[in-house]
Design brief:
two-stranded antiparallel ribbon, 252 residues, disordered C terminus, binds NADP nicotinamide-adenine-dinucleotide phosphate, 8 helices, Rossmann fold, 30% helix
């Protein structure tokens, strides 16, 4: 089977590609810039832009399953969901996995209403987002400032999402299902900062307090503050769930 992976150069997509290869699938990777894709040997890299359907026709030719992201450039939700799904279905693709964000756009309903065997993946916040948001302040000031320090969330490592996507794309029994993907542990920013501080043998600031009564963004940012890890410190995350080394992700 040939699987087309959109977002293949992204935080999750690279893991989707790796896990598909491990499962013996033929992988075709979509990118707007093949010269910069840097994907593993054996991957067929094709140029295409999700916002420009004419560029996608060759990419979907001969494909049996497709991994879809929901935005196209500048993190704007795809506006051409219906047309994109029609193109995919007309090419003979049988299965689609959609990696969704916080809100549905026009792609998800179009996929559900199609004849494709679809599966929705809805992960919570990626662990890589913390790397993106915190690495800079840690590197330059040794401090993390985070509002809502007691907000609970089970962030997920992006490789786990990629592994699920590959399993769904190559396996049976997932059609018509939506999977809400979480990490293994409910964490709060305060707990994550404490873990970073412990791993780097630095004490968290005693001044951090719940931020729910803050009256302004600036106030929120002042309230939860903890001196923390240095950039060269060992990762506090278990091996499969670490942040360092991952490609930067952005919130969406
Ligand atoms: N980040 C989060 O916290 C989060 C949470 C839940 C769900 N999601 C979902 O995760 C997906 C994004 O995955 P990600 O965070 O791994 O991506 P990412 O790291 O932000 O990378 C963006 C990817 O999208 C591709 N892309 C952007 N615009 C494109 C376009 N017009 N045509 C073709 N490809 C385009 C880029 O490919 P090239 O630059 O190579 O063309 C790149 O592979 C989205 O569907 C989003 O809804 C994200």
């Amino acid at each position: 089977m040939t699987v087309l992976v959109t977002g293949a150069t992204g935080t999750v997509g690279r893991h989707v590609v790796q896990h598909l290869l491990r499962r013996g699938a033929r992988v075709r990777a979509l990118t707007r810039d093949p010269a910069r894709a840097a994907l593993p040997a054996g991957v067929e890299v094709v140029a295409g832009d999700l916002t420009d359907l004419a560029t996608l026709r060759p990419a979907v030719d001969g494909v049996t399953a497709v991994h879809l992201i929901t935005f196209g450039g500048d993190y704007r939700p795809l506006a051409n969901g219906r047309e994109l799904v029609d193109l995919i279905a007309a090419a003979g693709v049988r299965k689609a996995v959609v990696l969704g964000g916080w809100q549905e756009g026009v792609l998800e309903p179009a996929v559900r209403q199609s004849a494709l065997e679809w599966t929705m993946l809805n992960p919570v916040q990626f662990m890589a987002n913390f790397l993106t948001d915190w690495a800079g302040p840690l590197r330059t000031r040794g401090v993390v400032r985070e509002p809502f320090g007691d907000r609970k969330s089970p962030p997920i490592h992006e490789e786990d999402i990629g592994e699920v996507a590959a399993a769904v794309l190559t396996g049976d029994g997932h059609g018509g299902r939506s999977y809400h993907l979480t990490g293994p542990e409910v964490l709060t920013p305060r707990l994550m900062i404490r873990a970073l501080a412990e791993a780097t043998r630095r004490a968290p600031s005693p001044g951090g307090r719940p931020s729910t009564r803050a009256t302004s963004g600036a106030d929120l940012r002042r309230r939860v503050t903890a001196p923390c890890a240095s950039p060269r410190a060992p990762s506090p995350w278990p091996r499969r769930r670490r942040g360092p080394g991952c490609r930067a992700a952005r919130r969406c």
